[in-house]
Design a protein that fits this description.
The structure is a homodimer. Chain A is of the alpha+beta class. Chain A has 2 domains: 21-310, BirA Bifunctional Protein, domain 2; 324-412, Rossmann fold, CATH 3.40.50. Helices cover 29% and strands 30% of the residues of chain A. Chain A contains 12 helices and 23 strands. The first copy, chain A, has helices spanning 21-28, 44-63, 77-83, 112-119, 168-188, 235-238, 270-274, 298-308, 334-346, 360-370, 380-384, 406-412, and strands at 32-36, 39-42, 67-68, 74-75, 96-98, 104-107, 131-140, 155-165, 195-201, 208-215, 221-226, 231-234, 254-268, 278-280, 286-288, 290-296, 310-311, 314-315, 326-331, 351-354, 374-379, 388-392, 399-401. A 5-stranded mixed barrel of chain A has the order 9-10-13-11-12. In chain A, strands 20-19-21-22-23 form a 5-stranded mixed β-sheet, sandwiched between helices. In chain A, strands 4-6-5 form a 3-stranded antiparallel β-sheet, with no helix packed on it. In chain A, helix 2 (44-63) crosses helix 8. Chain A starts with 20 loop residues before the first helix and ends with a helix. At the A-B interface, strand 1, strand 2, helix 2, strand 3 and strand 4 of A face strand 1, strand 2, helix 2, strand 3 and strand 4 of B.
């Protein structure tokens, strides 16, 4: 894309009311815009990054058999009253509103109830199990506190996967697969080193649930990390475990601030029992379906990446989620730059081409703020020196490389 | 995809309260599920078709310079009060709700106000114009009447494009481009022959707006078609035009029932004036930005296609939007079918493979109901006859073709 056509501009300063680092950087770089506290729009650069995060998650969930659907935000109270979760005392983040022709509706905060209600129409027998169903859908949560930029939103996309099984053994096998898929996802997103599968409370019906916690000083959670197992324990259950690692017994766990980027949960028969989701087993006996659920919030992932990968000049995107791979900057050499741009596109290398008629200093500052992984500068000086200046966003010094080896250099990097 | 893994089942009968043909067929075939009147979920087959429609629209809007963003559903009343549209008497389809920490919010029914408010931060000078910004975003409309299946929804995705110009001449040029893009879109969606660019009221600030109306007996609108120009006139302005074609003067227009699948509108300075969206021209004078807006509802398109392309057995999807291209059916020849399935996938031909252990009659009935363009049946009989039975969904008789020419046959078709 040509930067002269991009409608967003960068800002030198973030708005004063924006206290979180992720929102400050993303607002300044033109990735997002604030509609109100906890409610942000995604602009062209921001939507590109968000969609890359979503696509990585989608690929890994498809790889473990997920079938994608799209449920609705508007929720009929009827089924939520059956499970008791329509009550604001039980679920305290509802937005509720009214249909003009009569009747209250809520905006979905999560989707166990409607999905169980839907899948009842399609599951009769053990032959119909297991099934894995997921969506990327907008949730609404009437949060009292919304000051963490895009890490705690009142309106956000969630990947929520639900699995349906004939028995607990089958759930356990899939739960393990989902754990592995989640670790793969966070690896691909560039958060692998800092993300720990974390033991958390399982509620009344399982021993543990598992969170995926990424270490960052802006995290709202405290976790206790076992370096031997690369796992962690959430603060809420660390006492119950006598401050020991539940896998190896290691008692030397260190406390870290972290943000929950995903969680997985064995729901067992909690919702299927309440909503009468049954199947007939091989002997024709009626049994409750056993369920698991598995969530990731792409915007929170994007906020976490921003919090971790930045310096005093701006964001430093991991390649897999960068809005573009190359930031091509022309300093008065538009004809030569256009040829390089065409060549990069021909090689399917996503490029933002800064063709604007502005000062070199402004182009460099914007490039650092936006944080595209590779910067390629063409100028009279670079041509005299033998080609283009090439620099990774996290490197200090650029080097000159011949124009004809640029493509292979990027493909190797 | 293997049909044994698909979680949805077809239904012989639609629910009795479902009066529209599109919802009856899509519900029976397992494409959608009804949450409440005017609120439908999209299941794996339905989401595949919906995403194909969205992708066609996206490609054509990108081709006329559109930059994709994602605005929010939750709307701050402040800007809507400035234009007067927060008032339920002015805009009568609001869902309104409250933030727990105080303050009312609405669910966006359209997005002129927030987008103008956003783009003010990025447009200063004539050099920043024109710009074209669009999204696929979920709208909420508190409709009193919601009985047309997925053709009039209370919650639906809309592609809304907004263009920003320095003057009316520039808007006119882009408006023409958008008209052409829309005709291309409806052509690609399989609705070209039945869709007419339709003159409609322009409101107080332009002579005309344009709707794109598709002829179908289930349409809620009346249009008057000029066969000479392949355009139409909406009922609301036909009297003002003395029942004549506004392009050629033809007075022999015929009345048709139609559904509005898109509309485009010159907003001129209506919103930029109200919300103070200005730019500096070459002489440094401050002027109001001139705007256009351009909408298409992918679900309504999907409903319209369903209403038009069906027979007494089910849906007949146009290829471009079919959930899969080939429906491969094994009648007791799973080993051979698996090989064909692998071969189809290797050739990037999207295939639903019916590997279920059910009667042939059930497989055929489901295949006709789901409506995938090509049906390939492998059975002992077909092998004896020299290959597989091949049939298009809209053909009555199948023919035998050798397995080794199947791929090229499909690619040619």
């Amino acid at each position: 894309m040509k930067q002269s056509q991009l409608f967003t501009k960068t800002q030198k300063q973030a708005p004063k009311d924006e206290v979180s680092l992720n929102a400050q950087l993303l607002l300044r770089a033109g990735f997002i815009d604030k509609e109100m506290a906890g409610v942000y729009s995604f602009l062209p650069l921001g939507l590109r990054t968000l969609n890359k995060i979503i696509e990585i998650i989608r690929e890994e969930i498809n790889a473990i058999g997920g079938q994608e659907i799209l449920l609705t935000a508007l929720q009929n109270p009827k089924i939520w009253k059956i499970t008791g979760r329509w009550d604001d005392e039980v679920l305290d983040v509802w937005f509720k509103t009214k249909i003009k022709t009569g009747g209250e509706v809520g905006l979905g905060t999560t989707h166990e109830e409607p999905l169980v209600n839907l899948i009842k129409k399609h599951i009769n027998s053990y032959k119909d199990l297991p099934k894995y169903v997921y969506q990327f859908q907008t949730k609404f949560r009437n949060e009292k506190r919304a000051k963490s930029g895009i890490m705690r939103l009142r309106e956000f996309i969630m990947k929520d996967l639900y699995s349906f099984h004939a028995n607990q053994e089958d759930l356990e096998v899939y739960y393990k697969k989902a754990q592995e898929a989640y670790l793969k996802i966070f690896n691909r997103l560039g958060l692998g080193d800092k993300t720990y599968m974390t033991y958390a409370s399982g509620g009344t019906f399982s021993q543990y649930s598992h969170e995926f916690q990424t270490i960052t000083s802006s995290g709202e959670d405290l976790i206790y990390v076992c370096d031997k197992c690369h796992i962690a324990v959430n603060k809420e259950i660390i006492k119950d475990l006598n401050h020991q690692c539940p896998e190896c017994g290691n008692a030397k766990l260190h406390e870290e601030k972290a943000v929950e980027v995903g969680n997985i949960f064995k729901l067992m028969d909690k919702f299927s029992r309440a909503l009468d989701l049954k199947y007939k087993d091989k002997e024709g006996k009626s049994k409750s379906v056993i369920m698991g659920c598995y969530g990731i919030g792409p915007q929170r992932v994007m906020g976490t990446i921003t919090e971790i990968y930045n310096d005093n000049k701006g964001i430093i995107w991991p390649e897999a989620v960068a809005p573009f791979n190359v930031h091509l900057i022309s300093l008065g050499k538009d004809e030569e730059a256009q040829k390089i741009y065409d060549d990069l596109l021909k090689n399917s290398i996503e490029t933002l081409y800064d063709d604007r008629n502005v000062r070199a200093g402004e182009k460099f500052a914007d490039s650092d703020l936006i944080g595209i992984p590779y910067r390629v500068v063409i100028s009279g000086k670079s041509i005299d020196a033998g080609g283009v200046e090439f620099k990774k966003r996290n490197e200090i010094k650029s080097k000159i490389i011949p124009i004809k080896s640029l493509i292979s250099k990027i493909k190797q990097s």
